[in-house]
Amino acid sequence: MVRIIIVGGGVIGxxxxxxxxxxxxxxxxxxxxxxxxxxxxxxxxMLSPLAEAHTQEAELLRLGLESSNRYPEWVRELQxxxxxxxxxxxxxxxxxxLDRDDRADLQxxxxxxxxxxxxxDWLTGNQARTLEPALSPRVVAAIHCPSDLQVNGRLMTTALxxxxxxxxxxxxxxxxxxxxxxxxxxxTGIHIDSEFVPAELVIVAAGAWLSQVKGxxxxxxxxxxxxxxxxxxxxxxxEPIISHVIYAPDAYLVPRSNGSxxxxxxxxxxxxxxxxxxxxxxxxxxxxxxxxxxxxxxxxVDTFASLRPASRDNAPILGLTPVDGLIxxxxxxxxxxxxxxxxCDEIAQLVLTGIVxxxxxxxxxxxxxxxxxx
Length: 374
Description:
The chain is α/β, with parallel strands linked by helices. It folds into two domains: 3-81 and 153-223 and 312-368, FAD/NAD(P)-binding domain (3-Layer(bba) Sandwich), CATH 3.50.50.60; 90-147 and 225-311, 2-Layer Sandwich (D-Amino Acid Oxidase, Chain A, domain 2). 28% of the residues lie in helices and 26% in strands. The chain has eight helices and 19 strands. It has helices spanning 11-22, 39-42, 58-82, 100-115, 125-131, 153-166, 278-291, 340-353; strands at residues 3-7, 26-30, 46-47, 93-97, 121-124, 141-145, 149-150, 170-172, 179-183, 186-192, 195-198, 201-204, 224-235, 245-248, 251-255, 260-264, 300-311, 317-320, 326-330. It has an eight-stranded mixed β-sheet. It has a six-stranded mixed β-sheet with strand order 8-2-1-12-19-18, with helices on one face. It is globular. It starts with a strand and ends in a 21-residue tail after the last helix. The relative contact order is 0.19.
């Protein structure tokens, strides 16, 4: 049986490892720190392909919709095998406008969504407050995306860790891969300090740190950049203040079943810096309060900053590379949780069959052909 090594222990690496282990492969996963404590831990868990649709990202929208459609079965299998509830919720999303300019932008977004024939509805401010009475009286319009979903990213990370190991996968935390060994355009294994670990196949799911994985072709260091995101956790009163995910102009708010309310997230090109900043926290709280004034008295119970992995076109890089035995699953940017099922299913099937499916073909590394990728 082929020995497979996965580099990176976020939801993508863990999910691929779980799927491959279930197929009977010998899988070892190496994580530089603790599994799932990077972008996966900070993720709010919105599964919002409708709300986040953009005209210039038609292929990415299709990928997101496909992954969203796979979520019910993904959740069923993962919860069954891990015995962990990942707080899968089907409450939908409300995108809100707070003034005339916001409304014009939202109207443009709505027309774009309808051009893709997405199941969304235009609401007046009063109609939006009928769904969510705690919304600010300033809300003048909204888009209702009823089929958007959400999960708790931290619970999903924990569940994937359990399921991967139950399926027979070997997990090595606090074990950075020193180098991926490539000889004559063929992967032969990895180095852990001075130790060589042979493998016929290496899957790199190293998130924002792909550029720092040594041994890869030099041009790969330009494929992924880190994008900092600051995020807050508030504690709601006994009764949740909202049930929908709320997209406001300057923040999003994600309620969870445990009574927490996630507020996010900044988007900062700051290299590998992960410090929380007064300005970032202030802007998040301001943006959240403008849409949902009732948060004013809620205690802040969590703060976190992480690095999202963004490719040069902000879409994931999935599948085979010019190096035999090297597969990439990287660059999911702000859609890592949403795209986990489709990424893990399709990469596992690629390993099993050797065939790149039409689902992920548009996201191959070959689209960056101006780089020297060999």
